[in-house]
Specification:
The complex is a heterodimer of chains A (about 250) and B (about 80).
Chain A: E1 10-13, H1 19-30, E2 34-39, H2 43-55, E3 60-64, H3 70-84, E4 89-92, H4 107-135, E5 138-143, H5 147-150, H6 156-176, E6 181-188, H7 194-197, H8 201-208, H9 219-230, E7 241-244
Parallel strand pairs in A: 1-2, 1-4, 2-3, 4-5, 5-6, 6-7
Chain B: H1 3-16, H2 37-51, H3 57-62, H4 66-76
Helix pairs in contact in B: 1-2, 1-4
The chains are: A alpha/beta (about 250), B mainly alpha (about 80).
């Protein structure tokens, strides 16, 4: 379908060394985009993602940055612009977990998750606003989570950040709509990644019972929706949150 | 009037779609020229490119009229 074609577009995906971010980076490349692959810790894994993109005949660069630090995000966007000449799509995907019950959660555990998962998205939006305003076009796609809507015991920090991402998406979309920039969010449910692989078997079984489609999602299920939002097919959508969760939230 | 003023005027006319005659030195971007906050940010970005200088966010917030922009550029370029 031609309207999903991203040939000639460039994208930056944060947290793209593993899991959902990696699947998004590869799916964008499959649709035709050149991709900057951001990572914070796992350089070798990020290089593998970049190789997969190059194997598809697209350009890729690997950029280390802690998205929670504005200066690092700005430098990463600069590097992407210098390499690719422009930036059409930003996917704010990078995220961490520091799960604990509220009564046991340390202040640092709360702050770390908010810094990466919420402030990191703000830093990203701010960093690309200027080049995208000049281009008069741009797509910003923020990865939220089903728990940002439903809540989740043991994840107060993560849930607060992911709910915050939805509000941030709406505000940014209102500020930037008149400049041809759309800002949307995707809220995945339980997706098979290293992050959810850490959950105990009982917890995973409990989750399965809440999924009408009867299976956990795959990173590619989320990536397909991100490609859609990045494409011309989604030109008339902004400020939205798309739920990719097998029907958990409806 | 200075060359700087003429260049600023040209950009303001293009960016805000106003008449040249309206772009007086006293004209306030928001009140007189119908700019919204984002228009002013864009204008500042374009002036930075045109005059090859950086206008800090703090300074940009203080600029409200055409004359102030011209003065700023003349004292910083």
């Amino acid at each position: 379908m031609a309207r999903l074609d991203l040939t000639g577009k460039t994208a930056l995906v944060t947290g793209a060394s593993r899991g959902i971010g990696r699947a998004i980076a590869i799916a964008l490349a499959e649709a035709g985009a050149d991709v900057a692959v951001n990572y914070s810790g796992s350089e070798a894994a990020a290089a593998e993602t970049a190789q997969a993109i190059e194997a598809l005949g697209r350009r890729a660069i690997v950029v280390r940055a802690n998205v929670g630090k504005a200066a690092e995000f700005d430098a990463m966007v600069q590097q992407t612009l210098e390499t690719f000449g422009k930036l059409d799509v930003l996917v704010n995907n990078a995220g961490i977990t520091r799960d604990n019950l509220i009564m046991r959660m340390k202040e640092e555990e709360f702050d770390d998750v908010i810094e990466t998962n919420l402030k990191g998205v703000f830093n990203g939006i701010k960093a690309v606003t200027r080049p995208m305003m000049k281009q008069r076009s741009g797509r910003i796609i923020n990865i939220s989570s089903v728990v940002g809507i439903l809540g989740n015991a043991g994840q107060a920090n993560y849930v607060a950040a992911k709910a915050g991402v939805i509000g941030l998406t709406k505000s940014a979309s209102r500020e930037l709509a008149s400049r041809g920039i759309t800002v949307n969010a995707v809220a995945p449910g339980y997706i098979e990644t290293d992050m959810t692989g850490k959950l105990p078997k009982e917890v995973q079984d409990g989750i399965m019972a809440q999924i009408p489609l009867g299976r956990m999602g795959k990173p590619e299920d989320v990536a397909a929706v991100v490609v859609y939002l990045a494409s011309d097919a989604a030109a008339y959508m902004t400020g939205q949150t798309l739920h990719v969760d097998g029907g958990m939230y409806m | 009037m200075s060359d700087v003023y003429e260049r600023v005027k040209r950009i303001v006319v293009e960016r805000l779609g106003v008449e040249e005659a309206e772009v007086t030195s006293e004209a306030n971007f928001k009140d007189d020229l119908g700019a919204d906050s984002l228009d002013v940010v864009e204008l500042v970005m374009e002036l930075e490119d045109e005059f090859d200088l950086e206008i800090s966010d703090e300074d940009a917030e203080k600029i409200t009229t055409v004359g102030e922009v011209v003065n700023y550029i003349q004292s910083h370029a």
